[in-house]
Structures are given as C-alpha cells and as structure tokens.
Amino acid sequence: MLYNQLHFPGTMAKVPAMTNIQENIQYCRTLVQDQDLDRYYLSLFAPDSVRMHMWAILAFNCEVSNIVGKVSEPMLAEIRLQWWREAFDSILESQPRKHPVVEQLANLPDFGRIRYHLDKVLDAWSIFHEEDRATVSALECHAENTGGSINVALLHVLSPNALSSDAGPVRQAGKVFSLLAGIRAVNRRETGGTDAKALQATLKRIGDKLKPELSEMRAIQFTTRTTSILMAANGISDLYLRDLERAKFNIDEISLDKPSRFRKLFALLKYHMFSK
Fold first, then answer.
1. CA 13 to CA 24: how far, in whole Å?
2. β-strands 2-7, 14-17 pairing
3. Higher pLDDT, 163 or 171
4. CA nearest 230: which of 144, 140, 150?
5. pLDDT by residue (tens digit) across 186-203?
6. Which is more confidently placed, 262 or 199?
7. b/e map 20-46, b = 16+ CB within 10 Å
8. Contacts 24+ apart (CB under 8 A), 91-97
C-alpha cells in the first residue's frame, strides 16, 4: 500500500493513498469494524453486492463523528465539516478527492440522491453543542438527523426501489439506535458538569419514551427483506434499553462491554428469523 502526505481535516492524520478499489473497500470496512461494530454486524446480513456501499456510508459517519470527538474548537470542527461538503461537490463534478471514503462514496449507484441525507449528518454535527448533550429535545433531534439520516442513506443502496412508506420507520429505527448508543457514550464532563440526578432523570425520560416506540416498530411489515436489515438494529436497541433500565439510567453504572458481541449477533439473528 502506498502512502502520501495528505492530511485529512478530520483527524489531521496521514491518510493512505489507495491503489485500487479493493483497498478502498478494505479501508472502509476496517474503519467501520473498528469504530461502529454494531452497524458492521448489520451489514453482514446484506447482499454481497451492496455491502461495500454500506461500508462507504458508515465509514463516512465514523470519519465525521471523529471530527467532533477529537476537535474541541468549534471553528476547527466546522472547517473539517466543510471539507466533506466540498468533497461531495468533487464527487458530483466527477473528480472525487483522493481519500478512500470519498472515492468509495463516488462509487455509490446514486450519490446525488444519497448526498441529501449525508448533508443532514454534517449539518447536525455543525449545530450540535456541548450544552445540547443534557437536553432531551436536542439529543432526539441530533439522533434523528445523524442515525436516522444514515439509515435512510443505507436504505437507498439496499433497496433503491423501496416504498416511500418504508423511509419513515427506517429513519426512526436509526434515530432510536443512535440515541441509545449515544446515551451509553455520555459522561458528565461532556454535559458541562450536569448534576448527576438531573442527567439521570433526563435519560429516564428518553428511555420511557423509546420503549413504546420500539414495541410499535416490531409490528411493522416491509415489502423487501433488505429493508428489514436496517430495522434489525431494533434488536440491539432493545438490549441497550434493557441495560439502561437495569442501571436505572445511571451512566456510572453502564458497562460499555455489555451487551456482549454474542448477544448482539444473536439479537440480530433472532430478529431476522422471527420478525414479520
């Protein structure tokens, strides 16, 4: 593998210059497997023909999440988010920037249509601030525009002809998953020193609201199996919610090592075997 001196604005790290499409695919796959294992598991149930497209979208999501996680200065983060907007422009101009994720996004069957949803992810991170991490409405909005939008983008590559009625539940499943995964990653330093009991109460209100939503989504029927692949995230969301309930929504009692990988894979398999 060759390496150049390109510094990617997300992490300021050197990015490998890939020599062929297989190396680009492997870069995206490894990134997702390392940083978004739950959604990586989801991709394993997808047809081989679209799996690499899922990894490209999910790798983009990892890269953008890294920007906000590693850059403390809002202006610097915005510069890096703008880099991605310009990278999208370069794809539509048929001159994609030399970055493995950008080049893989350029290979999506209908990037022009998918870009709208990826732009919503960038915009969501652009307006998300530290104080938003302690408010229910801000967390829900952010989860819908990140996890929800990513799910709809994935729907376009999984089922290009999916009914428009499928997009709503798919977005909702992505929102719920993102919200629960985000709660697990919260710590009080990220919430501006929010009082522990106040934060616990906030998270409980979210959990109480999500429980019936997950129950309602179990009853939804879809016309294609590929659409249900994205809804299977509800199986992992159920595990996360139960763990949060056992911890009484006290983030200090939540273990990021649980649920185990086996439990997650079993939940996904169970979903595919027994969901409607």
1. 17
2. antiparallel
3. 171
4. 150
5. 754 454 455 678 878 888
6. 262
7. eeebbbebbbebbbebbebbbbbbebb
8. 91/115
Instruction: Give dist(CA 87, CA 49) in Å, integer.
Output: 25
CA distance 28 to 31: 5
Q: Which residues are 16's β-sheet partners?
A: 3
Please report the DSSP string for 169-223 in residue order.
HHHHHHHHHHHHHHHHH--GGGGTS--HHHHHHHHHHHHHHHHHHHHHHTT---S
Residues 18, 172: Cα–Cα separation, whole Å: 35
Residue range 25-83, pLDDT digits in tens: 999 999 999 999 999 999 999 999 999 999 999 999 999 999 877 777 888 889 999 99
Q: Are 53 and 157 in contact (CB under 8 A)?
A: yes
Find, among 24, 86, 43, the residue nearest to 268 by Cα: 43
pLDDT of 82 reads: 96
Q: What is the pLDDT of residue 154?
A: 97
Residue spans per domain, the chain: 1-110, 128-276
